Here is the input.
Amino acid sequence: MQIVRVAAILPARMASSRLPGKPLLHVHGLPMIEHVRRRALLCRGFAEVVVATCDREIAEVVEQYGGRYLITSPDHPVATDRVAEAMRQIDCTHVVNVQGDEILVLPSDLERFVDAITRQPDIPAWNAVARIEHVDELSDRAAVKCAVSHSGRVLFCSRDFSKLPVIRGTYEPIRRLLGILGYRREFLERYGRMSRTPLECAEAIDQSRILEHDVTLQGVEFQKGYPGINEPREVTMVETVLANDPLQQTVLQEILGSWPVRLST
Here is the structure.
């Protein structure tokens, strides 16, 4: 029986074009990257949780909260390349890339993701997906969408699906792609050697490189597609969810109450 050891790597950098410095943006008294790190730690399926960054400011904050970080090159064109570099220093068979802006990811959904990998460890790549709830999501270019097959395999990705014929009210077979991706170690080792592809470059979507190279990308459906923080307007959206969603309130209280106070600098 194949031994599966899944590590979570959280890529984060200060130089975001839409919201510079966002990993250290404070929400409820914690920087965003620490929110995400703690949620990943609450997932029992991860053998290790590591932040991968090219910025000393982020590394210092992670260290102050008692977390592990790895310094990576500042020259990576996409987050997946940063994760691939960090993976070389970690003992694992699979990696889950938990984007550092997925501040509302549920630990239970991360466990669902790890379970999907454990059940089919030979699949090269996975991506968390969620159902479309509002028609405006189809044209929101800040959110990447995809079309999926009957088995949940991702077929095509784009930032704008508003021109495609979809069934109003269900939006099948369109899903929102979330910033949670999984990889077999062997596939991620060769990902960086794969040439960048036309659709990947056109819309800045990492997943398109995988699909355009004929690699299987399996969707894993999450309970709900909570917003991340990529733009200033999304800060208010996240704070509203934390204030009104009972499940999120429970996770937030566990995050804020189960960890020791921040170490002095």
Summary: The CA atoms of residues 102 and 228 lie 5 Å apart. The mean pLDDT is 93.
